[in-house]
Structures are given as structure tokens and as C-alpha cells.
Amino acid sequence: MWHGRFKKDMSEDVKNFTQSLDIDWRMAECDIKGSLAHVKMLGAVGILKEDEAEKIAEGLKKVSEEIKSGKFTPSENLEDVHMNIEARLTELEPLGAKLHTARSRNDQVAVTTRLYLRERLKTLREELKNLLNVLVSNAEKHINIIIPGYTHMQQAQPISMGHYWLAWFEAFNRDLERLDFALKSLNESPLGAGALAGSTLPIDREMTSRILGFDCPTRNSLDTVASRDYMTDFHYFASVFMIHVSRLCNDLITWNTQEFAFVILPDEFCTGSSMMPQKKNPDVLELSRGKTGQVIGNLIDLLVNLKGLPMTYNRDLQEDKRGLWNSADTVESVVKILASLLSNVEVDEKLALAGLEKGYSLATDIAEYLVLKGVPFREAHLKTGKLTAWCIENNLSFNDLTLQQWREHIPEADEDILKILSPRESVRRRNTYGGTGFEQVEKQIKIAKEKL
């Protein structure tokens, strides 16, 4: 090993306990990318001779080729991805022993992790945009389909199914904004912060930041190696995204049941039962809902890890990536399969309307009709509530009532009340900005397309 401080070698048990190859080997290419920028800078400022920097860079490229081909097998004896790469580099090119000049594993780990996470989040961003496009497409396709809208899982008012899809567009678009914030928060270069205090050598942090595509170097070396805020920003995005996914999945699972039955899930995203031949189970939606707890747990795991740590770096932080990769992998898999599933969802408008006929979802329309007749809203609300109770007692719907019956219960009712008693008319008339009216949904679809 490269330590000179100790008289005894590390025990095998400690090596196995402290190694992190299982969680950081995936970052090998990003570690080499960071090292190439570092060695280029060392050569540019004169800390290394030009030919030394070139030979080390060539050695790093050879290590990269060995990793890509599978020829290079890392050793747990070397603890992590960083030391494995440096050791192999030095075997190929003895000058590799100079690579770690003006660098600590603390800033090396930080820059490697940011580079890797940045690549993952950029890919995830495109997948999330694809999901948003699917939701807009569904909104266009289902704009004229009327379904029940719910509060407290009770029928509330009729809505356009297109309006429903756009509700999730808004939620996931906010997630996209949170993802963009996470990308921005990680895009500062830690390289050159050293172990915690910078370096006495004349390094050029602006140069390495520029080479690696960061916005700027981090401003405080202590904060650089201590902070994991950029990770918590990602975890928060991932947790809120998965909560949105879980709620959407729950709606579709419920509406796909025989009791509702107006949402039809594609066969290729469902499974059967080992015992019951009639079953069509929404497993993809259920698994997506079920994975939400893992992602939220990873956020809590990191927060609890951080809460008691003193400045600056502590080995506890080695565990920061275990949940990070789990959440990144989970979110990426969910967003991909959800987009594919949603693009194939069908809606049975006939069954959706049949459900509305059984309820009294037009009660608010009646109360607002009375408001336009000059009746104070609270009085209109009371009259409509009493009428609803009478209809329930007599097993009648609003559409079953004659004009005479209307006037017996609500003297202000005229013949025009009969014209508003349809779910489609109810939706059409809700033409306020952001409402479910067909014209408004069309406007919001246009706005959504412009956002994308």
C-alpha cells in the first residue's frame, strides 16, 4: 500500500469492511476524465514537465481502454476505484506516481461523483421530457372524453380526461424543474480543494473546471469536501417524482378495477395469476408505486448520515453513493416504463359516463345556476343539498326530474336549467383559466407544447 504511517498492514476483515468497489467502480471512466483534466493542468502550470504530463495522460487512456474491454479487473485490496486506477496507471507508466500531486481523494471523489451523476441526470432529463410528451399526447387524444373527477374518493365534478393528463404534466414538469436545479447545484468543480484546505502548489482550478465543463470552481475548500447538498437536491427531486408516480399509478390501478372499469391498461404491461385464469394484474403500476418507499428511504438515509457529521470529510460519506445509485437506477427505470405504459392506456368513455349518471356530480352546477339567478351562494348551496337528499331518498337522478318538480324544490328554476344537466355541458361551461373546459384544455396543451 501507499501509506507510510503504519507499521502493520490492514487486516483482511478491515479491507473487506472498508472497500467501496461495489459502489464506485461504475464511476471508473469519470475518475479517469477527472484525472486527465488534473494532469493537463499540472503540466500547464509547470508542476509537471510537459512530457511527463503527456506520458501520464497516455497511461490513463490505456487504463481506460483496459476497463472498457474488460481486461482490467479491480482488486479490493486497493480499496476503491480511484486507487485501483492509480495503481494500474503506475504499473503501466511509473510517472503515474506523480498524478496525485496537489490532489486528495476527498476532492477526487467529489469531482468523480459529480461528473458521473451529471451524466446520469442529463440522460434522466431526456427520459422525463419523453414522459411529458406522452402526457401531452394523451391530453390531445382524450380531451373530449368525460370522466368523473374525485375528491375524498367521492365523485365531485365531471372533468375532461385531457385535463386529467395535463394535471400530471404540471406535476412532472415541476419535477423537471427540480431536476434542473439538481443539475445546476452539482455543476461546480471540487477539483483542487484538496483534503480540506487547498494546496500550496500553484494549481489552476479555473482551468480544470473549464476542461470538465463545470460552471465554476467551488468557492470554499472546507465546504467542498464536507457538503453533499447536491446529492440531497437530487434525492429530493427523486422522492417527489416517485410520490407523483405513486399517486398516478394509484389512480390508474383503481380506475382499472371492475368497480370503475373506465381505464383499460395494455395487456403487455400486465400479468396473470398463477391460480385465477380471469386475472389481469397491473403489476407495472403496482411495482412503480411500491418502489417509492425505497427512494424516499434513500433521501432519509443520506439526511440522517449528514446530520451529525463535523466539518469536513468523514468516512461516513463513503456511504453516500449507495442510496444515490439505487435512486438513480430506480427513477430511470420507472420513468422509461411509465412513458411506454401511458402511451398505450385507453379510456372507455361509455363506462365513465355511466358512472357519472349514478351520482350527483352536477350539484355545483345547479348551485352556480342559482347564483346567476341572484340567489346568495350559501342559500343556493343549501337548496341544492336538500334537493340532492330528496333525490337520493326517492332513487331519482337530477335528469329524472320534471320542470314542475324542479320548481317545487327550487322556485327560481326555469326551463334553462334542463340545458345544463349533462356532464359534457358541465365540462364545457368550466371555461375559467386552468379549468377543465375544452377550450381551456386546448390552451393548456398549447402552453405545454411550448414548454417542451
Give a quick summary of the entry.
The protein is mainly α and 452 residues long.
Tell me the span between the first and last alpha carbons: 52 Å
Secondary-structure element order, N to C: HHHHHHEEHEHEHHEHHEHHHHHH
Largest sheet: 2 strands, antiparallel
What spatial form do the alpha-carbon principal axes imply? Answer: elongated
The whole-number mean of residue pLDDT values reads 96
Question: What does the model show?
Answer:
By secondary structure, the protein is mostly helical. Helices cover 61% and strands 5% of the residues. The protein contains 18 helices and 6 strands. A two-stranded antiparallel ribbon has the order 1-2. A two-stranded parallel sheet has the order 3-4. A hairpin with a 2-residue loop joins strand 1 and strand 2.
Task: Furnish the topology, listing elements before pairings.
Layout: H1 12-18, H2 21-24, H3 28-44, H4 50-69, H5 81-92, H6 105-141, E1 146-151, E2 154-160, H7 161-186, E3 188-189, H8 205-211, E4 216-217, H9 221-226, H10 229-255, E5 263-264, H11 283-307, H12 320-342, E6 346-347, H13 349-358, H14 363-372, H15 377-393, H16 403-409, H17 423-429, H18 438-451
